[in-house]
Amino acid sequence: MPVTVLIVDVRSERSAALEQALLSAGFEVALRVDEREDLHALVELHQPDAVIIDADLPSRDTLEHLGQLGRRYPKPMIMLASEDAPDLVREAAGAGVSAYVVDHVMPAMVRTMVEVAITSFEAHRALKGELNRTQTTLVQRRSVDRAKALVMESRGLGEDAAYQYLRKTAMNRRLALHELADEMLKATRRTEGGCSGAGSSAGSGRH
Predict the structure, then answer these.
(1) N or C: at which end does the chain have fewer Cβ atoms within 10 angstroms?
(2) What pLDDT score does 181 carry?
(3) If you ran DSSP here, which 8-state letter would residue 42 be given?
(4) Which alpha helices (H) appear in the chain, and where do they start and end?
(5) Contact (CB, 8 A) for 99 and 79
(6) Residue 207: its pLDDT value, please?
(7) Structural domain spans, the chain
(8) pLDDT tens digits, residue range 72-101?
């Protein structure tokens, strides 16, 4: 199945040549659109595999729109520009642009350019997913450790015994260990909050 590309057209004369080069390289061009059109709706409708933005000097409005597009519909985005100003390159990267290419792209390089951008995007997304999973695991582990400390204190158990107690309770209730831990911590916070409120009321009633 051919890779589908959507071209955001700022320079029609060059974009026409780009479209032809993409077709010759075996890609499918979903559409050539003006940057002022509703990119969100068009990307949602056509579901391209990659987006190419053909611009002389991308404006900050263009980069802001691309950033919004990337957050809502993450896609490999390639920016073709005539200048390589460091600030623009950084802003483009911050907007989610996978590749920032300066000057004219030779037809023979089009396939490599798109494939490298897609590979880079997929690698970045995989790394981000792994980072999110690692962060989630750390948060869950901290919850279990706090719940284990509560059990050790309330039941006078050692660390291993407290962990086995949590594990057995979670299995009996058909919960993941971190789900049980979250429940226990929330219950403890509610109890502490109630005691604090009662103490404040009692204190305010004394003269």
Answers:
(1) C
(2) 94
(3) H
(4) 12-24, 39-46, 60-72, 86-94, 110-155, 159-172, 177-205
(5) yes
(6) 47
(7) 4-105, 134-204
(8) 888 888 888 776 677 777 877 887 888 777
Residue 158: pLDDT band by 50, 70, 90 thresholds? very high
Distance, in Å, from the CA atom of 184 to the CA atom of 177, rounded to the nearest integer, reads: 11
Sequence-distant (6+) residues with CB within 8 A of 76 are: 49, 50, 51, 98, 99, 114, 117, 118, 120, 121, 122
Is domain 134-204 given the CATH code 3.30.420.10 in the classification? no
In one-letter notation, the amino acid at residue 115 is E
**Torsional sign, CA 9, 11, 13, 17:** negative
Q: Give the relative orientation of helices 159-172 and 110-155 as an angle to the nearest 10 degrees.
A: 110
Q: What is the CA radius of gyration of the chain?
A: 27
What is the Cβ-side half-sphere exposure of residue 99, based on CA atoms within 13 angstroms? 23
Interatomic CA distance for residues 10 and 4, integer angstroms: 19
Per DSSP, the three-state class of 79 is: strand
CATH pick for 4-105 out of 3.50.50.60, 3.40.50.2300, 3.30.1660.10, 3.40.630.30: 3.40.50.2300
Angle CA(198)–CA(202)–CA(207) in degrees, nearest 5?
Answer: 165
